[in-house]
Amino acid sequence: MRNDSEPKALPPTVQRAIPAFRIGGWISFWVQVVLAVVAGIIFLFAVLFERSRTGDTASNPGTGAGIFFAVAGLVALGISIYWAFRYTRLARQLGAAQPGLRPRKADAIQMLRIGVIVNLSGMALSLMAAESITGILLGKALQPQGGRFRTDLSLDQFIQPLDIFVVLANTHTIVAHFAGLLTALCLIDWLGRQSRS
Question: What's the confidence (pLDDT) of residue 63?
Fold first, then answer.
């Protein structure tokens, strides 16, 4: 005779969803954390180095609109990292013994959609930063080189290694957002295929 207080076995779809959300969430979390830390350190170094050298950030291509959008992309990446961690918590909630405590499929899909929106927004901000930064670098690269054209060029008007670091940091941010976006889209696709089978 069955005791009603015993937990019911998890449905097979839920049993398959738990490792998918756990593994996808942790992979996305750690990839984004590593890339965010590297990008954050590079941006911090670039801004501090430039300020210590010139007293402001007016001569660095990572300033103005470029640095604003890059930092906004990093903030969005922080939200995305938190969201990837929430996928792992969702996996834990799916394993709840009581069916009433388990999130519904619609809740899981809504969480994934928010993850897609966060990553697309962060990627858009980082791409705007890339446009600004590389536009300024192109302007520096097209400056006439040598004394034949102009002799009043300062060192700040040439491309510096620090400028390339800023581009690299922004690229890390874009890749991190791509990893989060890919995770969310793969999980949405996986849930869709599970519901059709």
Answer: 60
C-beta atoms surrounding 60 within 10 Å: 24
Burial class (CB in 10 A: 0-12, 13-18, 19+), 42: buried
Q: What is the pLDDT of residues 145-172, one digit of tens each?
A: 654 545 555 555 667 777 788 889 999 9
Dist CA 187 CA 97 (whole Å): 23
Say what the pTM is. Answer: 0.81
DSSP tag of 52: H
Return the structure tokens found at 24. 């996808």
The angle formed by the CA atoms of residues 177, 183 and 184, to the nearest 5 degrees, is 90
Residue (of 77, 74, 48) closest to 63 by Cα position: 48
Q: What is the pLDDT of residue 114?
A: 96
Helix (H) or strand (E) holding 86: helix 64-94
User: Under a CB-based contact definition with an 8 Å cutoff, are residues 87 and 25 in contact?
Assistant: yes
